[in-house]
Specification:
With 236 residues, the chain is of the alpha/beta class. It is built from eight helices and eight strands; from the N terminus they run E-E-H-E-E-E-E-E-H-H-E-H-H-H-H-H. The protein has two domains: 154 residues, 3-Layer(aba) Sandwich (Lysozyme-like), CATH 3.40.80; 55 residues, no CATH class. Helices cover 32% and strands 12% of the residues. The radius of gyration is 17 Å and the shape is globular. The chain starts with a strand and ends with a helix.
Length: 236
Amino acid sequence: MRITKYYSPNFDLKARSNKRITSIIIHYTGMQSERESLKKLSSTVKKVSCHYLIGRNGKIFNLVKDKNIAWHAGKSRWGKYKNLNANSIGIELTNKGHRYGYQNFTKIQIKQLVKLCKKLKRKYRIKNNLILGHSDIAPLRKIDPGEKFPWSLLSNNGLGIYPKNTAKNKKKIKNISNKDFFNNLYKIGYRYLKVKFKKKITKNFQRRYRQSNIDGVLDFETLEISSFLAKKSNIT
């Protein structure tokens, strides 16, 4: 796997140990082009970065060394972790995103991502329930990598967790309790769980785990998916 160096100055100077690296966070760039994305990720004015960027042609750039903390996650929480920059490897995928015309990720792009994630997972012993999207760790402000990202394909390659057999009943049921759903989400790792944020969090949950219908409605299927995942990935 060929990786091209592309230096970004946006990282913490103090190096971290391999044991501190516990998660992988996947993003899309949300910009018009790869060139524009690289420019932003290396700008001393913008002060954002990532460890790796994968272009639509499958080319992998390494902007920040794994041992350094890149600035990609922002304010974030997952399970016991807060501000996940400190504990994660950030991977950006070139994609215009929802603002500029959300695209399907290319086959070669995802193929290269799978190779890279397998390498990182093996090297740092990263658990499947800590292979995450930006929308998982910051569900109130981020929606990337979005509903076109193939989480099921990654799961089939031993990366992340994805429901295989879930209920098909999408009927809205009045007596489904927010408490049951939020308890499941808490066990999975989600935080920021307040009723006033219910629709936004539900949509981001569906954006990853029920991509065919992202309506923000807590129906039976969504609850069943959350129950399945809570049993598979209880990290509390």
